Amino acid sequence: MGLDPVHEVVSRIWQIEKPEAPKNMAVVDCHTHTYFSGDSNTSISQFAENFETSGLTHAFVTDHQSVSAFPLLQERLGQRVICGQEQRVREGEIIGLFISEKIPPGLRLSEASNAIRGQGGIVYACHPMDEKRFSLGQRDLVNSLENGWIDAIELCNSKSASINPEIREIAERFGIPLLGGSDSHVATAIGSSGAVMPWFSSSQTFLRAAANAVPFGRYCDPRNSWPLPIVPTTSD
Q1: What CA–CA distance (Å, rounded) separates 183 from 161?
Q2: DSSP, residue by residue, the chain
Q3: Any idea of the CA torsion for 57, 174, 166, 31, to the nearest 10 degrees?
Q4: Is 61 left (phi over 0), alpha (psi -120 to 50) or beta?
Q5: pLDDT of 57-92, one tens digit each?
Q6: From CA 68, how far away is CA 184, in angstroms rounded?
Q7: Which residues of 86-101 are buried (b: 16+ CB within 10 A; e: fewer)?
Q8: Which domains does the chain have, with CATH numbers?
Q9: Could you say which residues of the chain have pLDDT below 70?
């Protein structure tokens, strides 16, 4: 499976269509948030309800500095939801996928990478080179790939105004899988970006499947409706 080269990216109206997914394929949103992030208003019930209508088979819940939503969502969605965490490091932001414990703040990317992998997790570069957010820049992204600190890169992020074609070029140069995530801070955005890939059952099989993933997505950044229905603590 490969990306269709005819897709053109237009700022704020970009779209890479989701390919048809046979029953033996997974449809995964690698980057979602709940109100445990502090800047999202998505409750546990809203997340579960929107997941059920999204067409996804799996979603990683990747709150900022928190893994508290995962056990609550697992009660509703079982193994279809997987634990992750969006982590601010000194160079930008990354995500740990398939983790079980909170990654501490204040680390360098190399240290966070070791901490994620120490839990058997996968290091995912989210919204790289997005100048409007605290993201890995081109130099830090390439340096991290040269040092083997990153396992996969987010091509499609629904909150990004456009897709940078250089991300695809860098990923191809280093042989790194490209994936997608909605970065949903509002429940209706869940599944707006993701990846279609072979089925997986663990971090190891996920990473092998990611080599054949096809990212998809569209710009989708609806405004939050404040105030939050509940404001939980974001400290675990």
Answers
A1: 12
A2: ----TT----TTT-EEPPPP--TTEEEEEEEE--GGGSS----HHHHHHHHHTTT-SEEEE--BT--THHHHHHHHHGGGEEEEEEEEETTEEEEEES--SPPPSS--HHHHHHHHHHTT-EEEE-STT-TTSS---HHHHHHHHHTT--SEEEEEETTSSS--HHHHHHHHHHT--EEEE--BSSGGGTTSEEEEEE--SSHHHHHHHHTT-EEEEE---PPP-SSPS----S--
A3: 30
A4: beta
A5: 999 999 999 999 999 999 999 999 999 999 999 999
A6: 17
A7: bbbbebbbbbbbbbee
A8: 25-218 (3.20.20.140)
A9: 1-12, 226-236
Q: Tokens at residue 114, please?
A: 């070791």
What is the identity of the amino acid at 7? Answer: H
